[in-house]
Amino acid sequence: HPETGRPSLFIGRHAHAIPGLESEESEQLLDGLLDNACQPPRLYEHDWQVGDLVVWDNRCVLHRARPWDYTVPRLMKHTRIQGELASEGVSA
Questions:
Q1: HEC states along 26-55?
Q2: What does pTM read for this prediction?
Q3: CA dihedral of residues 6, 45, 40, 63 (deg, nearest 10)
């Protein structure tokens, strides 16, 4: 983690290859890491209520959208308090 110095692994379902590994070996390792990361107690699923606000550090969590009622409007905003774009895998 760029702020805390804690060891971290920047992966997600978007990852498709690990340089230096054969495709099959890379896929197996990524699948295993993600499967392990997405098991209790490392899971949180928010039970949304009207007016809820959820904040997280993109550099510390795997997150994804879940199905929702498309007839109900929702508002999402991205706010950066600190940190560099590169810390989220984004180039300026």
A1: HHHHHHHHHHHHCCCCCCCCCCCCCCCCCC
A2: 0.60
A3: -40
Q: What digits encode the pLDDT tens for the residues 21-32? A: 999 999 999 999
Domain boundaries, the chain: 1-85
Give dist(CA 56, CA 79) in Å, integer: 10
The span from the CA of 28 to the CA of 23, in Å, is 9
- Three-class DSSP category at 8: coil
User: Using alpha carbons only, what angle is made at residue 91 by residues 88 and 92, rounded to the nearest 5 degrees?
Assistant: 115
